[in-house]
Amino acid sequence: MRMRLMLLGGGNALGQALIRLGAEEDIGFLAPRPPENGWDPASLTLLLDEHRPHVVINLAYYFDWFQAESVSEQRLAQQERAVERLAELCQHHEMILVQPSSYRVFDGSRATAYSEKDEPVPLGTRGQALWRIEQSVRATCPQHVLLRFGWVLDESIDGALGRFLTRAEQPQELLLADDRRGNPTPVDDAARVILSVIKQLDCDAPLWGTYHYAGNEATTPLALGQAILGEAQQWHKLAVQAPTAQAHAARPDASEEPQNAVLACRKILHTFGIKPRAWRSGLGPLLDRFYRHG
Questions:
Q1: How are beta strands 96-102 and 151-153 bridged, if at all?
Q2: Cα–Cα distances in Å, from 23 out to 16, 19, 290?
Q3: What is the tens place of the pLDDT at every residue in 42-84?
Q4: Is the whole model's pTM more than 0.70, yes or no?
Q5: Where would I find the H helices in the chain?
């Protein structure tokens, strides 16, 4: 790897997965510790002025964007300002910015999978913030790769998977939508995609733009929950054996979550040669880490 890589967010689940995968190929990252109150425009300015990496991978807000149950508008606004400044700094220093985004930029009204050509119409505050961040990055930093991911699953105890498994330990009804669709994406798979993109950028391939990636085989939260519970029994006895179906419209997050979150991944395949992997094969390693560390 000729390029110097800076990773913001090396302490979260996706950052850790990226560091692990990089180490297997002798690819290292400068992963600075964030200030006590998180990265802001001033601290990012000092950081990039001092280190001048070739590539910045911004996973600083991964948990809020992909795992948190909810995020306040104030917190999202602070993150927007920070990413806007980061894009300005990358443009000024001629750095490449790799920036994650999400299926949340779409409203879920389509019957088929969303491609990069579809116009985003985000539903909730998180999706709206992500769409504004995308627009800011595109307008400010031409050398960018925006990666929109599907339903990312990681081993964090307070993430989406962790909350589900914690609830399953109590004898209660676990309600999940049976008419909502998306692509589960294990965190190791998301990290693999980021690393694959970086390796090709290291070959001076100017493949800037927006790309979709999500695990192979769209499914429903109900079917995903059944698969997780079935696999988890190998590690831990759970009180809930199977989730209960509920309509998307009856879910408490129906106003925020797209009913159709399926992403088409043809562009990233044709451009980078990155093939979607089956999400089911990633559940075992994910649950193993969850129960070993949790």
A1: unpaired
A2: 11, 6, 21
A3: 999 999 999 999 999 999 999 999 999 999 999 999 999 999 9
A4: yes
A5: 13-24, 41-51, 62-66, 73-92, 125-140, 160-168, 187-201, 221-232, 266-272, 280-293
**Confidence category of residue 173, pLDDT binned at 50, 70, 90:** very high
The CATH number linked to 171 is 3.40.50.720
- Give the CA distances from residue 230 to residues 137, 165, 226, 280, in Å, rounded to whole numbers and listed in that order: 41, 11, 6, 11
Task: Supply φ then ψ for residue 186, to 5 degrees.
Answer: -55, 145
- Number of other CB atoms surrounding residue 151 within 10 Å: 25
**What is the per-residue pLDDT for 1?**
80
Domain containing residue 43: 5-293
Question: What are the tens digits of pLDDT across the range 188-213?
Answer: 999 999 999 999 998 877 899 999 99
Q: Are strands 244-246 and 151-153 parallel, antiparallel or unpaired?
A: unpaired
Burial of residue 74, with CB atoms counted within 10 A of its CB: 0-12 exposed, 13-18 middle, 19 or more buried = exposed
Q: What are the φ/ψ torsions at residue 216 (nearest 5 degrees)?
A: -75, 140
Distances (CA, A) of 201 to 6, 9, 55, 151, 174: 14, 20, 9, 25, 44
Q: Of 94, 86, 116, 102, which is closest to residue 206 (Cα–Cα)?
A: 94
Span 1-22, mean pLDDT?
96
Number of domains within the chain: 1
Which residues touch 162 (CB under 8 Å, ≥6 apart)?
Answer: 155, 156, 290, 294
Which pairs with CB-CB distance under 8 Å and at least 24 residues apart come from 206-209?
206/143, 207/145, 207/271, 207/272, 208/142, 208/143, 208/144, 208/145, 209/116, 209/144, 209/145, 209/146
Q: Contact 146/213 with Cβ under 8 angstroms?
A: no
Average model confidence (pLDDT) across the chain: 96
